[in-house]
Design a protein that fits this description.
3 helices; Rce1; 104 residues; 0% strand; single chain; flat; mainly alpha; 2 domains
C-alpha cells in the first residue's frame, strides 16, 4: 500500500512537472518573440532618427505600430493575406531609403 502511494505521488509530480515545462516553453517563446520584435522596432526607430535627424518620424512610427499591434505572419488558407504581407514587406524594403532621405 505504501508503494502504491509513492507511485501515485510520483505520477502526480511527473504530470505537474511536465505541465510546468510546457508552460515555461510557451511563455519563453512568447517573450522571445516580443523581445525580437522590440529589438527590430528599436533598430528601425534608431534608423529613422539618424536618417531624418528629428524625433517626429520615430514617434509617428511608434504610434502607428502601437495602433496596429503585432503582425499576423501567416493565416492558413488565406492566400490574399499572405500575398499582401509579402507585397508590403517588399515595398517597405524598396521604399525605405527613398522615403527617409534627409532632404525631403
Amino acid at each position: 500500500m505504501l508503494t502504491a502511494l509513492f507511485e501515485e505521488k510520483r505520477l502526480v509530480f511527473d504530470s505537474f512537472s511536465s505541465l510546468y515545462v510546457i508552460a515555461y516553453w510557451n511563455i519563453s517563446g512568447f517573450l522571445g518573440l516580443q523581445l525580437d520584435y522590440t529589438a527590430v522596432f528599436g533598430s528601425y526607430s534608431s534608423f529613422l532618427f539618424v536618417r531624418t535627424g528629428n524625433l517626429v518620424a520615430p514617434l509617428i512610427a511608434h504610434a502607428f505600430c502601437n495602433y496596429m499591434g503585432l503582425p499576423v505572419l501567416l493565416i492558413p488558407r488565406k492566400g490574399l493575406v499572405s500575398v499582401a504581407f509579402v507585397a508590403g514587406m517588399l515595398s517597405f524594403a524598396w521604399l525605405l531609403l527613398p522615403l527617409t532621405r534627409p532632404d525631403l
